[in-house]
Design goal:
It is a single chain. The protein is mainly alpha-helical and 395 residues long. The chain starts with 5 loop residues before the first helix and ends with a helix.
Length: 395
Amino acid sequence: MISRSIRHQSLLSAYWIPINFQGSAILAIAVPSALLTIARANHTAALAMLASVVAIVAMVVPPLAGAISDHFRRRGGIRRPFIMIGAAVNVAGLYWMSHTATLMPFTTGLLTATLGQSISLAAYQPLIPEVVDRADWGLASGYQGISSLVGSVLGLGFASFMSPAAVFNWTAVFVIVGALLVAATPEGKLQPEQEAAHVGNWFDFAVAFASRSFVNFGLTLLMTFVLYFFHDALGDQNPSASTGLFGGLALLGAVVTSFWMGQLSDRIARKNIVAAAGIPMAAAIYIFAAAPGLHWLGLIALLFGLGYGAFVSTGWALALDTVPQLRDAARDLGIWGLASGVPGVAAPALGGWLLARYSSSAAGYAMLFFVAATCFVLGSVVVLFIGWGQRARAR
């Protein structure tokens, strides 16, 4: 077990920075921006197709890679080689993307990068429950949340002011540095008491999974199409900068709540914090749906970020609490990743259909934002059912 020290916890969570740098820089800005040139008039349909295909890869690979990692871990192995292999594949895909200007090679590079990141993520996720004392999972989740937000802020910052090719190259640099830090991450052998440890149960896991799926569905709708909202509906001539500004302000608000909510969740019920996190997120996007524009962009983004920070940090600790058995943590957290993967497939398709259905771009995006905010509300309601299965069995 590693200590609560800033050094150990920061090192353990450092690889979340390139993971989230890649998510925010590439999927939210660089890929949509590149498609404006590569796909031209068909950029919305091309993005919806690419986002769905990428989500399928990110959905299928982690449970399989995680099960393989668990198998070697139970035989006395370590997880770092899987993380390194995934990082190498990821970097190869990113380099490929930066050197192509046609749709099919671009798609191949993006899928290769996604495959590599999915392999790394599957082996990296279970490190926290394996090397951190359970009483400190909320603290570790807070560090994970801060690292995730730092990566997202950096990704948005780089992508807002650089060409897509430069963003792909810088993402590869961040992945390489992160992989080197993983090499220094403490990792011991899985102890017999850990291998047999039961943490949560399948009912609570399913409820937490459903709640996170709703929230991620809303987040995916926003992340996939927000750049095109600024470009198509508002006529913004620099949509990358506007997307980066909105995301940066939201993440600034998230930093305020992420670390403290993670620590607080070690003392009170995590599900209540996750449920409360959806309120400011939904309120911000309902306002944006009712009055879309740039006038109140800063306040809306900050309000959204306050809830998002609590969701990022405490939601991860809640996932660890509901994993049924520690020996299969990588596999089960890979399954948990389906709560992002399934919305990643369905949300772009729904968003593309909504935008095509409305003759007015403004009306289409308003409905898209309304659906996203409603998903945040549903996620907050569903998570409160955690623990009901145990109470029913007790009765």
